[in-house]
Amino acid sequence: MSRIVQIHPVDPQPRLIQQVVALLKSGGVIVYPTDTGYAFGWALGDKAATDRVRRMRRLDEQHHFTLVCRDLSELATYAKVEDPAYRVLRAHTPGPYTFILRATKDVPRRLVHEKRKTIGLRVPDNKIAQALLKEMAEPIQSTSLVLPDAGELGADPQDIFDAVGNQVDVVIDGGFCGNDMTTVVDLTDGVPVLVRRGAGDSTAFE
Q1: How far is CA 17 from CA 115, 140, 169, in A?
Q2: 140-190 confidence digits (pLDDT tens)
Q3: In the chain, what are the domains?
Q4: Which pLDDT score is estimated for 154?
Q5: Which of 28, 115, 126, 179 could form a disulfide with 169 if both were Cys (CB 3.0 to 4.6 A apart)?
Q6: Strands 97-102 and 146-147, how do they pair?
């Protein structure tokens, strides 16, 4: 049965973080807070959970999800980061940015863009998300909290639960954390190219 779990936004309770991570590792799908708003999250490489989210959002096989990483070191395990890109990443992580980079062999093939061999990655500046990532010891697959018939689901955890409570396993109530998109930056060639303006400061990429 789906439930709301209230986790303190500044000092996340370790016991609750452990419970949510155990759920993720057993194939669960959650809604969790990031620094730009709430998002769907599930374990890296979990095909059944990925398929659940695809059905929920009515996404085809061409849609690629984001890998949410704990820090720049973990991000570099899953993406090829040359010096110019590293400098950009170091200046903007953690933060409300998604970076497109060439994937390493540690990324499951079905998560990689078929032609470009790229993956979207981000490091959120949110204590609950960071606590989950630390306990997981690997990235969380993630996508925006959007449904085909309802659009964006907003920032109130109870409203989110009312909308998707029968489709996910846990909705984390971490208080208000915004309701925006990330700024998306393509770093595949080392030179940053702005793909989408969002919550982050995009002036450095324009």
Answers
A1: 37, 14, 14
A2: 999 998 887 765 667 889 999 998 889 999 999 999 998 899 999 999 998
A3: 3-205 (3.90.870.10)
A4: 72
A5: 28
A6: unpaired
- What are the residue ranges in the chain where pLDDT is below 50? none
Residues 34 and 172: their CA atoms lie apart, in Å, by 11
Q: Which residue pairs from 146-150 have beta carbons closer than 8 angstroms and sit at least 24 positions apart in sequence? A: 146/57, 147/56, 147/57, 148/57, 148/58
* Contact residues for 87 (Cβ-Cβ < 8 A; gap 6+): none
Residue with the two structure tokens 């016991």: 15
Strand order in the sheet with 140-144: 3-6, 170-173, 29-33, 38-43, 140-144, 66-68, 118-122, 97-102, 183-186, 193-196
Q: Give CA torsion, residues 138, 125, 192, 73, to 10 deg.
A: -40
Both tokens of residue 173? 């109530």
